[in-house]
Amino acid sequence: MMIDLTFIREMARRFQEDEIPRLSAELAYYFLLSLFPFLIFLITLLAYLPIPHEDLLSVIRQYAPKEAIHLVEANVHRVMDEQNGRLLSLSIIGAIWSASNGMNAIVRAFNRAYDVVENRPFLVARGMSVLLTLGMIVVIIVALVLPVFGKMIGLFLFSAFGFSATFLTIWNAMRWVISSLILFAVFTTLYYFAPNKKLRCANVVRGAIFATIGWIITSLAFSYYVNHFAHYAAMYGSLGGMIILMVWFYLSGMIIVLGGEMNAIFDCEREGRKR
Question: Where does the chain cross the membrane (predicted)?
Answer without folding.
Answer: 27-51, 87-107, 127-146, 153-170, 176-193, 205-226
